[in-house]
Write a structure and sequence with these properties.
This protein is an alpha/beta fold and 437 residues long. Helix content is 37%, strand content 21%. The chain contains 15 helices and 18 strands. A hairpin with a 2-residue loop joins β6 (128-131) and β7. The chain is globular.
Length: 437
């Protein structure tokens, strides 16, 4: 295949499709593989300029990362792209025990060594901002410092108690991390500031960003450096966004287009949610008010050895019956934040929900499926036997409509899939998904 412009590994599936949307909607020929691709599948998409591998390291331990990420990063580097990106959530939630971004930085440094590791977390298109090293995120139209964010400060697995990104990472790695502050970006002095950081011994460099102009400045610095020596980078989809203008100016991708494709409406939509976000809670409640059939899942019962199989069978029968009636259906494991006595069980629950989804689709095929929740989506999609996703249309930022690619025997080739993080989407998002616009 020709040398691509950009390759990335997503630490969860929703974040992976977020990047897919950013680059594909800009006219970059793109594919997202579900796990490391075979050579046959790589050849199938040999014309792609952006190649992604969806993963689930966000929910994994540092030990798991040490065992698996070196091979994954080596595969990423083998594509030959100037930029190899470890894609994190734009809320940067992680901890020394789960989803350690610091450990991923260390592995990237050792596997794909370069002059420095850029860290771009800001994603203004998603309401994520970094100012003087501190992360802010929007919720309900209000921008909060991440440690005061109504949801992220109480995340059930990786709550954010520190807004300073470098201090947050200091609990996960001993790597020295420099900072390119807003004033340097404003006076177009980011390249000189990076050189100063590297000369001072910083192994990684965090970039501030509160606007599109800030991202463009960062993107130009990164691309100039990457053309001299391939870069391993980390951060949100803002990093991919930062590169678009420099690629356009260089004639590597098409000029900006005002026309974007839309999806077609479908009669029935199947939603599976493992999210405990208040945003998803409002979306579920809105869907139920408009006539969606709701099926509440009991995670403890569903995962129990004693009654789990029977509980799952009942859920599949009920969902299939409603879908055959032509009624859109939502299966959900929570309505809002978990109580203090309710343990998080993202990986096991996600796998179980993926198994149920596969059984539902085998019996009552539906054209479009929405999965809500980052951990849920990652582990559920892995149960479906898909090998790739391509972008079909934009709906709302961070949750695109994708086309699934699967072997013929699965019956899922062409399935339309939306993977939505807990914080993503407006209140009426489920119905927007059904309508395809």
């Amino acid at each position: 295949m020709d040398r691509p412009l950009y390759a990335y590994y997503g630490d969860d599936f929703t974040g992976s499709t977020d990047v897919l949307e950013v680059v594909a909607a800009a006219g970059v020929r793109s594919v997202l593989f579900i796990g490391p691709p075979s050579e046959r599948h790589v050849r199938q998409f040999s014309d792609c300029q952006a190649i992604g591998i969806a993963g689930d390291s966000r929910s994994r331990s540092p030990q798991w990362m040490s065992e698996h990420l070196p091979a994954l990063f080596t595969r990423l580097g083998a594509f030959g792209a100037p930029i190899a990106h470890y894609k994190t959530c734009s809320t940067f939630d992680s901890s020394p025990q789960v989803g350690s971004i610091g450990r991923a930085l260390e592995i990237g440094r050792d596997t794909l060594p370069g002059p420095f590791i850029p860290i771009v977390v800001a994603a203004p298109h998603l309401g994520r901002y970094v100012a003087f090293g501190n992360l802010f995120a929007a919720a309900g139209g209000v921008v909060h410092r991440i440690d005061r964010h109504p949801t992220m400060r109480a995340h059930p697995v990786t709550p954010m108690h520190e807004a300073d990104v470098r201090r947050h990472l200091a609990a996960q790695t001993a790597m020295r991390i420099g900072l390119i502050e807003l004033p340097a970006l404003a006076r177009s002095a980011a390249a000189e500031a990076v050189a100063d950081c590297v000369a001072a011994g910083d192994e990684a460099v965090l970039f501030d960003g509160v606007s599109e102009a800030d991202l463009e400045q960062s993107g130009r610095v990164l691309w100039r450096s990457a053309k001299r020596h391939a870069l391993f980078c980390a951060g949100s989809s803002g990093l991919a966004h930062a590169l678009l203008s420099v690629w356009r100016d260089a004639g590597l991708i098409p000029a900006r287009s005002e026309r974007q494709p839309c999806g077609e409406p479908v009669d029935t939509l199947l939603v599976m949610s493992g999210s405990c976000s208040p945003v998803t809670e409002r979306q579920i409640q809105a869907a139920l008010r408009t006539g969606y059939h709701g099926i509440a899942l009991d995670p403890a019962r569903l995962l129990s050895e004693a009654g789990g199989a029977q509980a799952g069978e009942r859920l599949v029968r009920e969902a299939v019956a409603r879908l055959r009636e032509g009624r859109s259906t939502v299966l959900y494991s929570a309505l809002g934040p978990l109580g203090g006595a309710s343990p998080a069980s993202g990986e096991a629950l996600g796998r179980r929900m993926g198994e149920l989804l596969a059984r539902i689709l085998a019996t009552a095929p539906v054209p479009r499926v929405l999965l809500a929740g980052g951990d849920t989506s990652s582990h559920a999609v892995a149960q479906l036997g898909l090998y790739a996703l391509t972008w079909k249309a934009g709906l709302e930022p961070g949750a695109p409509l994708c086309r699934a690619h699967a072997d013929e025997r699965s019956g899922l080739e062409g399935l339309e899939l939306i993977l939505k993080g807990g914080q993503v989407g407006s209140e009426g998002f489920f119905e927007r998904v059904r309508l395809g616009r």
